Queue: 4 jobs
Job 1
Amino acid sequence: MQLKLVNGSGALQVSEAAFGTKFNEALVHQVITAYQAAGRAGTKAQKSRAEVRGGGRKPYAQKGTGQARAGSNRSPIWVGGGKTFAAKPRDFTQKVNRKMYRGAIRSMLSELARTERLLVTDGIQLAAPKTRLLAQQLKAWELPSVLIVVEASDEKLVLAARNLPHVEVIEVPALNPLSLAAYDKVLMTVGAVKLIEERLQ
């Protein structure tokens, strides 16, 4: 299959195995959910009534005070008491094997290509690392919300893009399902496309 070039005539021939597979919605959903879950810190912690300080003796007599019975001033219903179902640190990660992860990436790239949201460029040449220059270039290509995937680190491009709210620049090794789903369109350099083809074979 072929991908459209935004800065020039013609198209780039790409592998059907990487960019022409059937869209698997269930797999993509599972992988994105697992990716988000893996980003959670899981460090929330609270104290139960057994762990909170104090509450060693009965606060007042069982009868004769006119108040409800109380055995501890660290009961969950008292101010300063422990939590009934105290939160504890936990690991939210979900197991996703390599074959599933690559299958989801392959499925997402294929759907982007099918819906003409995946574009290719020979390269983004900036005279200086200026946000204005990149904004003008993206406006000319009609890309207000775009994920730019490059094969190698480009300091000028990164500096120019970091202040644009709906633009992100990542390298091929950092390509992830959440970024692919977050933007209207994906713009890849020719070198990035070749690297992705090698990784997804």
Job 2
Amino acid sequence: MSSFCTIYQALEYTADEDEIPHWSSDQNAWLGYGYYFWDSSIDRAHWWGKSRYKNNYMICKTEYDKNFHLFDMFDTNHSKEYTDTRIVLAKEFASRKKVSNTIYAQDVINALKSTSEFMNNFFAIRMLAMECAPVIHKIQFASNSPAYSDEDLPVQLCVWDKRFFKADVIVVFPDDSELVF
């Protein structure tokens, strides 16, 4: 079975090759600075383009190898490392009596990225993005339970090293585009 996966990025419509893929340096970039992609879902990329860029968007795609330098929150070892780092940060925040003791994902990721070992081993993070995108289609588990899953999970990747990409980044929407970057 192939370990290659397709990822999609919606960005404001432009033909400027310096912007493709788009690097997010927004202070609110929830997984830190990087290239944000939807994992395996062009539908999520279209939703983002329509809602964020008011239909003035394009979509590019590339591929990655899920076994290559990926810090994957679906991997129990990686999620444990994330949790252990969050616990250490919580103790540090409490000892400094910060105004807000809220620890955000980017705080933990930035702490992980502060070590050369982490940066040498990982070029991207993959995480489920609950409540950031609409449910496409609920998979009900039982009639007497509110538990469900979604047929198209909102999984995002934040890539900080282009060596993670295993194919050219190409524009796939609009369909008449043949731009390759």
Job 3
Amino acid sequence: MSMARFLTLEGIEGAGKSTVGKFVLGWLARQRIPGRLTREPGGTPLAERVRQLVLERGSEPLSPVAETLLMFAARDLHLKNLIRPALERGEWVICDRFTDATRAYQGSGRGVDAGLIETLAGAVQGKLEPDCTLLLDLPPSVGLARARSREAGPADRFEAETLAFFERVRSGYLELARRAPRRFRVIDASAALAAVEARVEAILEDLV
């Protein structure tokens, strides 16, 4: 029986998902557990091209519904060409954002109908859900300050959003965690890195 796990990382900009993802991959390697770190939107060459469409600040407006459809188009490619094959090989998949991000960003943040999002989720991922979701939670003002301090170029469409937008996104994430307490693990991402890693390690040990 495969011991593969599907682990997702969620949170607003500046929450430290990339750092935690690398920590998880390193921890798995030390346990001799095969792991794959990926991200959404993106993860495969074609899905990364869709990512560019979603993030770029072009002259043509992108409606919230169009944005949602692009997210699921990229997700479908990602699932079929990377995530499902890796899980079938017995690898752990650590994904930086997944469908909960669409629920929080496009649903709570943009106001896209939740019914539409769930219909698309059912069509694209079927019954596949993460085994565990690490929600790295922190005040949006802190996360945005972190994200904007490390920007090497112009902000993308999401990084340029208002504080009020990210407050809605954070509230959406916390409501998702409240509704699915067995899957979500909420982590204080404003804490020191060592404390965050200790909490993540304890969760991983429980999953193993």
Job 4
Amino acid sequence: MNFLTMEISIKSTSLLIAVVLTGLSAGLFYAWQVSVIPGTRKVTDLTYLQTMQSINRAILNPAFFLIFFGCLILLIINTIQQLNTGIIFWLLLSATLIYLIGTFGVTVFGNVPLNNTLEAMDLTRLGEDKAMEFRQVYEQKWNRFHLIRTVFSVISFLFSVLAILSYSGQ
């Protein structure tokens, strides 16, 4: 195996991993959108808030971080690697910017601050009225941000798939 073949193999593998991680991210957010959100709409206010606190704590784990951050890092790396490749570069740049702004950015500046506000609450001292009031505000905003990041992660995945299909056609 010569250097050029090895470089192409590393680029191909890196691009494949980026696409897989982007797909896993989109799948995670989509699955949440169609299963967890409808399920949590059916529970009481306090149960909802307790559940969201528990989920927000549990999701901060290495598997989630690998998908959430790894996707962005590998999209950036692959975009740079494909700098002079024409359509592949533009597809990857689109996938990267869409993920960066619409998925990563919305999560960091939308969902996470809401999660931090919820985490700071002592739910055992919250009355029914306050729980209902907070849930209405939190759930509406959180679900809106989640829908945005879901749509953007799916679009990013589609662009990354188009990039790998274009790459394999070279």
